[in-house]
Amino acid sequence: MSHLGFDINDHVAEIVLDNPPQNRIDEQMAEELLAAVEKAESSGARAILLRAEGPDFCFGGDIVTWPDLDVRQLRMLFERYMFAFNRFEQIPVPVIAAVNGLCFGGGFELALRSDVIFAGEGARFGHPEQTLGIVTLLGGIYRSAARAGRARAYEWALTSEQVPAATMAQAGVVNHILPDAEVLEAARAFARKVAAGPTRAHAAHKALLRMWEAGGVKAADDSMFDIAIPLFESKDVAVALTSAVAAYKAGRPRPTVDFTGE
């Protein structure tokens, strides 16, 4: 992989945007993202950390070739991007993004596919598509709205302003803000923590949230037991539930469980 790095340690897969100087997303990076998702799934990773090389996370899509493509070719290109981004979003383990510097356009849309976002104090986010007369092509505006509400998401798309990390945190888009130099290690530590947890339960919660986003509480309720009940057949629940009941009966504190993800 030449535009995307991949490594795995302590059950955490790191996917690294590495297309200097701006880490722009092109066809090659989209293909490598798909390959990285497949590697993460086959490796047994129990969490994913998304980060970038260099001072900036990503400036967005590589627009250089777009004027030379007709609308059919453009649609095919963006459909490939959407497919790769959706596969990344749907991977059934927690995904944590570490964002420093500028995070614009497709880069912002990729970060929004993560479950938890750590950002540096100097990070800035934005939808620059308005400056080109187009829309957020990979679902950025409505994924922003899912976190921050319709009014804020539409304003950001209307203005293409560079939104500071602090504002994004206040709006619920970013989970944690830290000094720029501390973002990566904090995100790594969090990824290691969730990777040591009940992996199948994490996947179930992620699936339920997708159901809720798509169809509201009713859709999530309708899917609840199809998603939740199989967990009771897992090794992790067998150990955790049995030990919790034994501790309760003995009047002892509930013990810490070493979850295996099985």
From TrEMBL:
Coiled coil residues, start to end: none
PANTHER family: ENOYL-COA HYDRATASE, MITOCHONDRIAL (PTHR11941:SF54), ENOYL-COA HYDRATASE-RELATED (PTHR11941)
PROSITE patterns listed in its UniProt record: ENOYL_COA_HYDRATASE
Alphabetical list of InterPro entries matching this protein: ClpP/crotonase-like_dom_sf, Enoyl-CoA_hyd/isom_CS, Enoyl-CoA_hydra/iso
Domain of life, per lineage: Bacteria
SUPFAM superfamilies named in the record: ClpP/crotonase (SSF52096)
CDD domains: crotonase-like (cd06558)
Family: Belongs to the enoyl-CoA hydratase/isomerase family.
Protein name: Enoyl-CoA hydratase
